[in-house]
Amino acid sequence: MEHTGILFDLFLIFVSAKLFNYIFQKIHIPPMIGEITAGLIIGAGGLHLIKETPVLDAFSELGAMMLLFVVGLHTRLKDMLKIGTDATIVAVLGVALPLMLGYFFILFTDHKGIEALFVATALVATSVGITARVLKDMKLEQTVSAKIILGAAVADDILGLLVLAAVTGETNGSIDGYKILSLFILVVLFLAGVFLVGGRSIKILKTRLEKMKLEKNEFILSMTVLLGLSFLTSYIGMASIVGAFFAGLLMAELEDQHLSDMFDSIYEFLVPFFFVMIGMKIDPKLLMEPGILLIAVIYTVIAIVGKYIGCGLGAARFGWRVMNFVGLGMIPRGEVGMIVALIGLNLGVIDSKAYAIIIFMVVVTTLITPFVLSFVSRRWQVK
Question: Given 3-state DSSP classes, what are the helix, strand and coil percentages for the chain, each rounded to the nearest 5?
Answer without folding.
Answer: 80, 0, 20
